[in-house]
Write the structure tokens for this entry.
Amino acid sequence: MCGILGLLLHDPSVDAAPDICEGLSLLQHRGQDACGIVTCGPKGRFFQCKANGMVRDVFDEKAVSKLIGGMGVGHVRYPTAGSSNHAEAQPFYVNSPYGIVFAHNGNLIDGPSLLQYMDATAHRHINTSSDSELLLNLFANNLQQTGKFRINEDDIFNAIGGLMKQCTGAYACVAMLAGFGIIAFRDPNGIRPLGVASRRSNSGKDYLFASESIVADALGFSEWEDVKPGEAVIITRSGVSRKHVAEHAIFAPDIFEFVYFARPDSVLDGISVYRSRMAMGDALAVEVDKVLKEHGITVDVVIPVPDTSRVAALNLAQKLNLPYREGFIKNRYVGRTFIMPGQQMRRKNVRRKLNAMALEFSGKNVLLVDDSIVRGTTSKEIIQMAKDVGAKKVIVASCAPPIRYSNVYGIDMPSRTELVAYGRTTQEIAEAIGADLVVFQTLPNLVASVRQFNPSIPTFDCSVFTGEYVTGGVTEEYLHQLELLRADNVKKKSAASSWEGKGEGSVVNGFHDRETMVASSGPINRADDTVGLHNTWNVS
């Protein structure tokens, strides 16, 4: 999962970088591995700064001051596979045609065939194993076909429409053409979120694209609108053009955005994340009450697992007329364990991140409420922490159903065999994580909790719960390759090994590619430096 942002200021003499930097910090929850900004200044010149690390660490005052220009694109990411070289941070850049900067959130499922097309037909060199670079080059190649010295909005719409016919998967993208403007588009199913907003300035209107509405709220933008599925939006200083460029497809935003990823103060596709989590708590309370009665268990206190589950836990406690307590105190300077790159690191960081207060656990039957249970690593550690400080029984309630399938649309779910719910019953899951009892939200209740706030959305992508993929085209072979790529031991191996292969792999442009083209929102090559643009990060 990544966060993307594009900004165009009406006054080109005012630098966009400070606002982009602030916006990225508000999207930091979507990725903590790397971040980057590219701005466009006088005469269409690009200025770039990107590196591994948090926004606050990469973009100090000196770094931001070197990013000149009144429009720009920003990106935060976490890696789904591969090493963490700072060259792998987005946005990406190609100089031809016209100079394009590109940032992407999502994942393509037809990377190998697109790579073959790039090599054999388009004759464009793909330097990484990133579907983001593929998308950029598809877009660039389609623009190249116009053969024009200068392009217009219709040319761009046609290029994006062609791209949507060529590729399959989830993608929310922001691009910038040198000296022209900023562009955004969203896949035909609308799986990944993206919106646009405006702000009145002294000279005219400023425009913003962002993954979540919180960026618009914080930066003083209003009139937030979601980019529609299959829609492209072009913004220049002359105006805004919008067009639906894809063939009709079912609108199915990813429900996991509402369960876990998005900030509670964001509104996605007309749905308040906060309100949806309140509704999840109400629905979960009914299920918990039923299961507790079946097992003859009473609960003394409801305690959330910080932070995402707090809203749901509070509503659940109120509905069941139980006391709500903050039993875990969080160290806010440790990142989100779900998006940490290694299993051992995740396990170690749970206890660094949380401290259990014996006062709220000792001698009590405790109901822990969490947003979801993925690997079970965090849950197992948290349950043990509760028991270590004296909890009699620990019951876990999950706002989401059991996660039994891989996500192929840009969330770094582990392989199916690493999912604690894979091949296990609810009782076996409880035994695996050390809980006395586990209660899961039902899928119909989860969908209803979210959909009630925007009934016009026909369905949601619930593939991690059902194994049904809305785009189609997800084969067992693809899932197997994806799992090999994402497995923690493969990540460690690829981080330690060099690009020159030991063993066989497919040959691409004369080079051995040992990894299948299924990485998400970031390259996984071993490039030593960024390509094409000078990177001002850490330059005095």
Summary: Confidence is low (pLDDT under 50) at residues 496-530. The longest strand covers residues 100-108. Residues 375 and 418 are 6 Å apart (CA to CA). The chain has 18 helices and 23 strands.
